[in-house]
């Protein structure tokens, strides 16, 4: 199964207008769309996208369509072409995600894991999570595909780090800002703490009341709170004050949303 795009998706990804794409197709027949479904829409795949980007880039360099058409299709498809922010290797992973082909992703990550480069393994997972988010933003994958990958990678990470669990009283709590459903960043942070043999507990996203109860009932020295959805500074201060009223623990905020908030301020 290949990734399928409507013409509007090709337009969003390449920056070319739908009218320009249709014009090139009518004149030069460079794409191989497939008509599918009762809606009568034409669908394009990764090869069409690659040909389209190559055509666009070569014209930008000053070549004429006639010159470009002299290049065999198979030669174009074998070239390293950047899909805006994505290179060929990244596009391969995006296609795996689109196809729900997690076996290939698992094989790739397992190979790194088995070499005992644990931190590199975590970094590669982090890179894949960022790549998936960008791919969704650029319309390369659907929200359903992004969610499915997130669930799969969460279970995959958990299955590996269970071997590192320290069955000691935790001194570090790893949580997610109440209401923020993105737990993967916090889970990677927890995995790193386990690697460094720091007794920690991962609770993910808890409602505020339950998070405060967890902190109140345990003697944590540090509480890390991951933020992916940007929050207002006042919301962070409000939560911090509530925690400080019930515990002397150090409070650390982090994550993509927190870094974005700092940049905006």
Structural notes for this entry:
- This protein has a four-stranded parallel sheet, with helices on both faces. Strands 1-2 form a two-stranded antiparallel sheet.
- Strand 1 (34-35) and strand 2 (42-43) form a beta hairpin.
- Helix 6 crosses helix 8, helix 8 runs antiparallel to helix 9 and helix 9 runs parallel beside helix 10.
- Helices cover 57% and strands 9% of the residues.
- It is elongated, with a radius of gyration of 23 Å.
- It has 265 residues and is α/β, with parallel strands linked by helices.
Which structural class do the helices and strands define?
alpha/beta
Helix content: 55-70%
CATH superfamily of the largest domain: Cobalamin-binding domain
Low-confidence stretches: none
Average pLDDT taken over every residue = 89
Which word captures the global form? elongated
Using the 3D structure, state the CATH architecture of the largest domain.
Answer: 3-Layer(aba) Sandwich
Q: Would you count the extended β strands for me?
A: 6
Give the N-to-C terminal Cα separation. 45 Å
CATH topology name of the largest domain, in short, is Rossmann fold
Strand content range: 5-15%
Question: Could you give the topology of this structure?
Answer:
Blueprint: H1 7-14, H2 18-28, E1 34-35, E2 42-43, H3 46-60, H4 65-68, H5 73-77, H6 88-98, H7 102-114, H8 118-137, H9 143-161, E3 172-176, H10 184-195, E4 200-205, H11 208-217, E5 222-226, H12 233-246, E6 250-254, H13 256-264
Parallel strand pairs: 3-4, 3-5, 5-6
Antiparallel strand pairs: 1-2
């Amino acid at each position: 199964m290949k990734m399928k795009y409507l013409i509007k998706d090709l337009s969003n990804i390449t920056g070319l207008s739908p009218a320009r794409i249709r014009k090139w197709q009518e004149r030069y027949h460079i794409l191989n769309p497939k008509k599918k479904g009762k809606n009568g829409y034409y669908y394009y795949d990764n090869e069409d996208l690659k040909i389209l980007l190559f055509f666009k880039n070569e014209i930008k360099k000053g070549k004429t369509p006639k010159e470009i058409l002299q290049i065999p299709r198979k030669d174009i498809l074998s070239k390293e072409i950047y899909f805006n922010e994505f290179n060929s290797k990244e596009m391969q992973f995006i296609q795996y995600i689109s196809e729900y082909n997690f076996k290939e992703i698992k094989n790739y990550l397992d190979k790194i894991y088995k070499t005992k480069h644990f931190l590199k393994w975590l970094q590669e997972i982090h890179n894949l999570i960022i790549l998936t988010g960008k791919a969704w933003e650029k319309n390369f994958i659907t929200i359903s595909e992004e969610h499915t990958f997130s669930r799969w990678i969460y279970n995959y990470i958990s299955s590996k780090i269970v071997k590192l669990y320290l069955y000691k009283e935790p001194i570090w709590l790893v949580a997610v800002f109440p209401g923020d459903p993105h737990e993967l960043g916090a889970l990677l942070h927890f995995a790193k703490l386990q690697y460094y043999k720091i007794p920690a507990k991962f609770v993910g996203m808890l409602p505020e009341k339950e998070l405060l109860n967890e902190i109140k009932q345990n003697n944590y020295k540090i509480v890390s709170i991951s933020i992916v959805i940007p929050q207002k500074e006042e919301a962070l201060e409000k939560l911090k004050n509530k925690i400080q009223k019930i515990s002397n623990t150090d409070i650390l905020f982090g994550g993509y949303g927190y870094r974005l908030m700092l940049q905006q301020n």
